[in-house]
Amino acid sequence: MEPTAEGVSVFLEKYCLQCHGEGKVKGKVDFTTVSASRPTDGDFDLWELASEVVDYEEMPPEEEKQPTVEERAAFLQWYRNVYEKVEAKPGVFQPRRLSAPEYRNTMRSVFGFDLENKVIAAEQTVTEPSLILKLMPTDPPGESGYINDTHAASLSTHLWDQYAYFSEAAVNQLFARVRRPQLEDLVGKELPGDFTPTSLTQTQAAALLENFANRAFRRPIPEEMLKEKLEKIAGLSGNRLLRAVKFEMRAVLMSPAFFYRGMMMPQSPGKQQSVDSYELAERLSYFFWEDMPDEELSRVASDGSLNEPEVFQAQVLRLLESPRARSLAESFAVQWLVLDEIDDVYADPTQLHAFKNQPIDFLNYLFTENRPVMEIIDSEVTFANYITASIYPKDRHQLAKYVKPKGIERASVPNQKIRLEKTEGRGGLLTMPAILAMNHGPIIRGTWTLRHILGEHLGEPPADIPPIESTAGDRSLSFREKFARHRSDAACARCHDKIDPLGFAFEAYNDKGGFLLGRDKKALPKLVSGKSSSGNQIDPSGKLPTGETFANFEELKQILMTSRREDIVRNIVEQVLSYALCRDLEAYDAPTVDSITETIVNSNGSWQDLFLEVVNSLPFRETVFPE
Amino acid sequence: MKRNWSIDRRTFLRGAAGAALPLPFLNLMEASGASDATNLAGDEGPPVRFLSLFKPNGVHPPSWNINGGTEHDFRMSPLMAPFSQHKDDLLILDNMGDYGFSSHANSTRRFLSGHHQNTNQASLDQILADHIGRETRHRSLELTTEGLFPGQIGCSYISYGPGGERLPRESDPQLIFDRLFRHPMAVPSKRREMSSLLDRVSDDAKSLQRKAGSEDRDTLEEYLSVVRDTEKRIERMEENASPPSINFEDLERPPLATNLDDQVNAMIDLIALALWTDSTRCATYMLGNSNSRMIFDFLGVKEQHHYLSHFFRNFSRENIDGLLKISLWHMEKFDYLLTRLKSFKDQEGTLLDHTVVLFGSGMGHSDNHTAQRVPTILAGKGGGMLKTGRYLRYAENQELGNLHLALMQGFGVPVDTFANSSKPIQGLDGSPFEMYQERPFESWIKLTSGKITVQGRLVMSENLDEAKTFYMEVEGKDPVRVEVSFRDFHNFNLAYHVGTPITLSGNRSDKNGQLLMTKVTELKSVFGKSDPRKAG
After folding, report:
1. Residue A175 forms contact with B (CB below 8 Å)
2. Which of A422, B73, B197, B478 has a 20 to 30 A CA-CA distance from B247?
3. pLDDT-derived band at A502, boundaries 50, 70, 90
């Protein structure tokens, strides 16, 4: 079989159409709707699915006639020729509802204060201080896996009620005495000392409405709309004026142009075009901050200078330097690496605070301090406080001495950056205690590393394969040997050849992320094999499917840093780009991913370089409007 | 102690000031159509409500306990001073709880669930809510002050659902107010407002739609369909709405709380308002988790409440002062609650007259977690259910379940048992009960070299400078001072035996001519149990 359209058509005829098109359409997969000779963007999802199940030998089903190895290879080659050599183009423009954290932050930026849920946040307790996050339903991740990909999460009457409630609460609070500075900020001038909400003048009300709408819409309110609003308040005063103003403000907040993104962008249907400067500003700020543009970014959007490369670059760096860029670690990285699973490991909030913030502080440092992308795998820096200090006995002296305040039983204190000068086996994200602890056992650790770090898409485990305990119940076999037996089955080996060596490399670390071996064994992480304090043999060695072997995790890390570098960078580029675009990547994004990956790999680029590449990329800067 | 914070709260009700408001007569029974079963004051009376206020971290017993006195003739203790003006509306219960010790989590569960092992049944408030709360818009309210304590999650909950599951708590007064009185769908003016808002935004959205491409049009179509659904919901509401008994729009939303004191006062105001408007008939409120880590900096106290509550181990005069300041603040909140309940007229009498308030904590001695003499006070007449103005010191320890059972029966819930209890506590309505009575006993001191054995009444020092010191009172002699380690204090459960006659043996080290015991080797109760090693 040749990797051609004809070859693929024959392949489909022979192996697929019986169940997926001719008469029967199993699993809603229908190959009669597509044509191998005319593959389109719209068909990408189907062909991608087909190539995955063919690659992982999930289809055709075992009891059916199977393609030869050559036939499978030719099919995959055709898929790659068609879809991985496409020309880059931007995604079709889609409005998108703000995610719950984006909405919370945007409301805060519009009003200048947070809507709070009052609760006393004593030490060792957990609270939700945001009224919005407390009441909003949790956003389901979109196809991209990120919650800012809200395309599939539709608006509901329940959400409507919440938006209505927040809008009213915030507008009312704006006129409370304690919010006078925020009100003055929105009116644009100081209010007299004897000001009360009912003494609002027409001039103040008009300024307030215009400034408020401009802020909330993230672009100037259309003149016509402003005129309508001003007509509604004209001639009113006192309580009636106040009520009308509040009503108009609430209408702004309930408008689709507020809680959807991109609703007011001017558009020419059918044409690929650069996004305008307001949209560009918004894309930047929601990417780096999960929030609307601040005053300065809005200013360069409004005078158009944001489109100048120097101004643009300066703004990106400014956004990255802001403390608000911590959102990249707290939101993007937490979702990418499923770090919320750490929440299940530590019951005490001070412990959780210390251990969960280690990876977050570390990633925030890589992201915002211009560190090389690959330092995520190996770094000489980590973050610790008095609770995690014991993990770094030889370097803990760098920590400022913690003096427990009198009368406070346990307190959450911020982490501090330390250098791993004498500590072994702890550099990089993978051996941070919380990462090891949230991933129990070699299989979960291996799968997590493969999926989230190396970016491999593993298929689902075959349903008819029993779990490992029952297949290898022989007590004379070690855990590792049981898996060796498991891998002797070809169906299992397809994934476990990749998973197991990675997972077993972490064998020297226990379920809490500490070292398994006793204190007396000094060369712990470098150890090829040895006995754990419980007497079990420790064997962190392994062999990758590529044939590369390693004696322990440190050696595996060197393999990741060198021969797997490109895989890791490519995965990171895909993750960052997908998060920045708030959508799943499509076939036509492949050239963008390829080019950024190449740049970062060749230059040992930093996270900052990577972010700059992403925000300068075609899909970030341009869009296409449907006809 | 000088009170340096204000309890003079402004009221929510416009034009209302002071106690017993001359409000228009409101027949809440008619408005809500309550069933007869809840009607204890006769066919015409208002409904009886239940309210529980929980105080974290036990008490400093010498400051709390009433020693001596009789049912009708007693002096309230120093910690009770803040609410002593309500003496006639109180039923102070003593000897509540059981022998032994209790963890914070167990004592929290026990507070309304009768026994700490009663983990698969609803708590008292929820059983009452099932009985009295079905007619009201809100079946019950579960309120709190402090965040969740996941290290010992049971410390954060007193209210439990039908399977014993923890019920979510709310802490923000504005949010509660809005739920009770400002729900956009439940208030006519809110519905009208929402209708015009819907008109406006759909006009705006349609003008956007005309300019939009196809993708946006889909989004806008979805948006408009939600707008239309909301319009329909409002219309249905409008058709089904019954005229409100009280114009909620006259109620003022509580201001944004800026500190703990404001937050708690606002919540108490709201609870009173919710009960009075018959929005709910059942509420529980925790002034903090039972092991509260809160810091009362507005009282000038920098240490955590829980740390200070272990006043024996963390003893200093300053710490005791801090602890008592916090406890007095709790008592002031109880006082404020009663004052608010009295300020609402409810047909014949006040709201308090038609409410049963259960105030208390989970444990007796806050350092060693004694499960005996657990602070427990009932307030309000409960529409005749309670005969107040009395002090009931029971002859026998009373499990909390006995009290809960009696209250359920008082509310007309047909039950014979609850948790471990099948004996409802006696005397709440003025019926006979067995009062604790002093029995005569001999007291004496026996001295040998370095050792001392003394029989007498064990008391805690009332002098705050020596808050970890005990005395053995012996008739006709100077008391023997007892200064022991925490280990002895705890192992022999001295706190449990306080106020009762015991025989105490130990090492002697006299000071300035006064007999002093420094180590306990044996403790025997003259009349009761001696072995403290019983789980509570």
Report:
1. no
2. B197
3. very high
A64 and B CB contact within 8 Å: no
Q: Residue B11: its pLDDT value, please?
A: 32
B26 or A193, which is more confident? A193
Where along chain B do its domains lie? 49-182+257-410, 188-240, 444-525
Spell out which residues of chain B touch residue A164, defining contact as CB-CB under 8 Å: 184, 194, 197
CB B407 within 8 A of CB B401: no
Across the range B207-229, mean pLDDT stands at 82
What is d(CA A433, CA A431) in angstroms, rounded to the nearest whole number? 6
Residue A126 CB neighbour total at 10 angstroms: 16
Contact at 8 Å (CB) between B405 and B356? no
- Chain A positions touching B149 (Cβ under 8 A) are 124-125
B293 within 8 A of A124, measured Cβ to Cβ: yes
- Chain B residue with minimum CA distance to A173: B256
pLDDT tens digits, residue range A2-15? 888 888 888 988 88
DSSP notation for B26-46: --HHHHHT--GGG--S-TTSP
3-state secondary structure of B440: coil
Amino acid B427: pLDDT = 96
| Residue contact A125–B147, C-beta within 8 A | yes
> Which of B104, B143, B149 to mutate: most A Cβ within 10 Å?
B149
What pLDDT digit, counting tens, does each position of B340-397 carry? 999 998 888 999 999 999 999 999 999 989 888 999 999 999 999 999 999 999 988 8
Cα dihedral angle (A471, A473, A477, A479), rounded to 10 degrees?
70
Taking the CA of residue B437 and the nearest CA in chain A, the distance in Å comes to: 41
CB A621 within 8 A of CB A276: no
Are B49-182+257-410 and B444-525 the same fold in CATH?
no
At the fourth CATH level, which superfamily is domain B444-525? Nucleic acid-binding proteins (2.40.50.140)
Q: What is the pLDDT of residues A70-93, one digit of tens each?
A: 888 888 888 888 877 778 889 888
Q: Please report, as a single letter, which amino acid is at residue A393.
A: P
CA-based R_g, chain A, Å = 28
Contact yes or no for B214/A270 (Cβ under 8 A): no
A113: contact with B, CB 8 A cutoff: no
The answer to whether residues A596 and A610 touch, using CB atoms and an 8 Å cutoff, is yes
A155 and B CB contact within 8 Å: yes
How big is the A-B interface in CB pairs under 8 Å? 160
Q: Which residue of B has its CA nearest to A404?
A: B303
Alpha carbon of residue A222 to chain centroid: 34
Per-residue model confidence (pLDDT) at position B27? 30
Q: Give me the pLDDT at residue A33, please.
A: 84
Residues pairing with B94 in the sheet: B393
Mark yes or no for CB contact A172/B253 under 8 Å: yes
Residue A256 C-alpha, separation from nearest chain B C-alpha, in angstroms: 7
Residue A125 touches chain B, beta carbons under 8 Å: yes
Question: Residue B207's pLDDT band (boundaries 50, 70, 90)?
Answer: confident
Q: How far is B491 from chain A (nearest CA, A)?
A: 24
Q: What is the largest CA-CA distance in chain A?
A: 91
ipTM topping 0.95: no
| Number of DSSP helices (H) and strands (E) in chain A, helices first | 27, 10
The shortest C-alpha distance from A40 to chain B (Å) reads: 19
Shortest CA gap A155–chain B (Å): 7
- Which of A95, A159, A349 faces B216 most closely, judged by CB atoms? A95
Residues of A in contact with B151 (CB under 8 A): 124, 347-349
CB contact under 8 A, A93 and B146: no
The CATH homologous superfamily for domain B49-182+257-410 is Alkaline Phosphatase, subunit A (3.40.720.10)
Residue A536 has a pLDDT of 62
Q: What's the confidence (pLDDT) of residue A469?
A: 54
